[in-house]
Amino acid sequence: PSKEEIYRSAIEQTVEAWLDPFDAIDPDGDPIEELRRYITVKLKMSDQNPEASRLFANEVQRGAPLVGEFLSTRLKALVDEKVAVIRTWIDQGRLAPVDPYHLIFTIWATTQHYADFETQVRAVLGDGPGRGCAGQGGDGSVGRGRVAHGRRSRC
After folding, report:
1. Contact status, residue 117 vs residue 124, Cβ threshold 8 Å
2. Among 63, 85, 140, 153, whose CB has the most other CB atoms within 10 angstroms?
3. What global pTM score does this model have?
4. Shortest CA distance to 111 belongs to which of 30, 54, 44, 48?
């Protein structure tokens, strides 16, 4: 295989791995727990393999010349499916009104920030114990105003 084929394959494998927990969001589950579980898994993935996140970010910033079709087909189809789930939750009063697409973009931006901007995160938080970059509490909690207290992370 050519370098281009290897590169394309690496990016597509990364995105497919990220899509597995996204695909697992259960329409019948509790919206907050489903989103919390997805965010927690996505944060761990970014923490465990920040190079893959940066590789993907670089490809997208270049206009996605090698994976544009993948993004506009496989990714778009799954995003549209999950947008419908989020809209149902909103319509049922189980989730506050929000634009589902922008909620998904915000989750992606937040979860990938720690990998894509690792240098910035380290500059602000330092390298000491409890200064991890995964955005989680030591108990696995997410979004409670703390960043990885109680666990050591690479960042």
Report:
1. no
2. 153
3. 0.79
4. 44
